[in-house]
Design a protein that fits this description.
By secondary structure, the protein is α/β, with parallel strands linked by helices. It is 34% helix and 28% strand. It folds into 2 domains: 217 residues, P-loop containing nucleotide triphosphate hydrolases (Rossmann fold); 61 residues, Alpha-Beta Plaits (2-Layer Sandwich), CATH 3.30.70.1150.
Amino acid sequence: MAFLELEHVSKWYGTYRANDDITFGVEPGRLFGVLGPNGAGKTTLLRMITRILLPDQGRILFNGEPLRIEHQQRIGYVPEERGLYKNLTVLDNLQYFAQLKGLSAPTARERAHWWLQRMDARGWEKKKVRELSKGMSQKVQFIASVLHQPPLLVLDEPFSGLDPLNVEVFLDVIAELRSSGTTILFSTHVMEQVEQLCDDIVLINRGRIVEYGSLRQVKARYGIRRLELEFDGDDSFLDRLGAVTILERRDHSAAIELSGGLPQAQHIIAEALQHTMLRRAECVEPTLREIFIETVRRTQPQEIAA
């Protein structure tokens, strides 16, 4: 049974439908990516999952039960727009949010100190939030979302404002939480991080689902797109392949678009073997970034997805 289920969920703002008949499930302990271009409806969807907003149609199930306000105690949420109290200290903020989730003050302080150390933020306890950089505030917001050890963690653009070193800290912590059994939903525009982290994805455009499934299933639906070759010897055989698109050509390597699938790949490899010492031949699936751009352009032809 899915840990989180959305059944025909829709949300309107006046006449604008932000989410339109959204149905998917998230299995327990999985890392689930919610993807889409700006304005696709991702944040609205996450706010309904965290019960900040209520659906106008459909229902959301949490561990088999209709989502209720009591379930918020079991959900951690890092919003894209930070929600810390700027005139309070870091420790006061963390203790306050932890107590809202049912922790005692001593337990909240103990866990806050542990997490500040884990997030390379030791010594920040007495700093006012207004003194923090965007990246520092992001760390504090994240800590506030996990102090009560929620089984479901929802992250809206969690890497925004972070430098590469701190992105690595976040990635390590997210991996640790997933290994401990936490179910994690996160929204991001960085497709490389999705490929690195996610088990499953849903891609939303114009409020509707346009792709959904395990990362493996989604990529398999788009087939083999490119053949990469590494070889020793003359590369003139590439000029005799006929009507092919060579995506990249360097000394002793080439990347070729496969419009004809595996039969075309087999033909090219046979030619390479006849004329070179072939070191490597690999059929490559499209990257998630390529799938994202193609799918969004197909379902939103008047706009350019970046």
